[in-house]
Amino acid sequence: MVKQEALEWKVFLFARQPWRGFGALLVCLVTLYFIHSLADSPWLTGLSAFVLAASLSSFLLPTHYRLDESHAGSRNLFSRQSRPWTDFRSLSHDGARLKLRTFRHDSRLDHYRGMLLLLDPERRDEIIDFARQKIKEAHNEQD
């Protein structure tokens, strides 16, 4: 078996579910219309548009993921996150999501401290196995 040094993939939810994307854009446009009508301020409307775009960026824009020897990371236009494998103690997965958890068992804090990665359906098992191996290696080195 060949040992991989890094895995990279891109997830673009808008392309996978265009009707949800168009629905979200429609809601954003209606919201911006009401903000502009009520506040009559181009600055406030512009700020609102930025906040809405940033909050929906993981859906509306492609997100790039990278798992390498020392870190797990994700990035898109509005955010960038990279964490060392030593931060994580376990993982869980369901469907197209991989949750890197900071505790060995389920914890409510993992929603805030953990890291959620959306998986490429064609490489799902490969990504999960790679992450599991890196978490195990990170904690064997610490002991």
Explain what you see.
The chain is an alpha+beta fold. Helices cover 47% and strands 24% of the residues. The protein is built from 6 helices and 7 strands; from the N terminus they run βααααβββββαβα. The protein has helices spanning 13-16, 18-39, 42-55, 57-60, 110-113, 124-142; strands at residues 7-11, 63-67, 71-75, 80-84, 90-94, 97-101, 115-118. The strands form 2 sheets. It has a 4-stranded antiparallel β-sheet, covered by helices on one side. A 3-stranded antiparallel β-sheet has the order 5-6-7. Helix 2 (18-39) runs antiparallel to helix 3. The radius of gyration is 19 Å and the shape is elongated. The two termini are 26 Å apart.
Structural class: alpha+beta
Rg, nearest Å: 19 Å
Largest sheet: 4 strands, antiparallel
Helix percent reads: 40-55%
- How much of the sequence lies in strands comes to 15-25%
Integer average pLDDT: 91
**DSSP strand tally:** 7
Distance between the termini: 26 Å
Globally, the shape reads elongated
Pattern of helices and strands: EHHHHEEEEEHEH
Low-confidence stretches: none
Number of helices: 6
Going across the major beta sheet, what is the strand order?
Answer: 1-2-3-4
Q: Helices and strands in order, then pairings?
A:
Elements: E1 7-11, H1 13-16, H2 18-39, H3 42-55, H4 57-60, E2 63-67, E3 71-75, E4 80-84, E5 90-94, E6 97-101, H5 110-113, E7 115-118, H6 124-142
Antiparallel strand pairs: 1-2, 2-3, 3-4, 5-6, 6-7
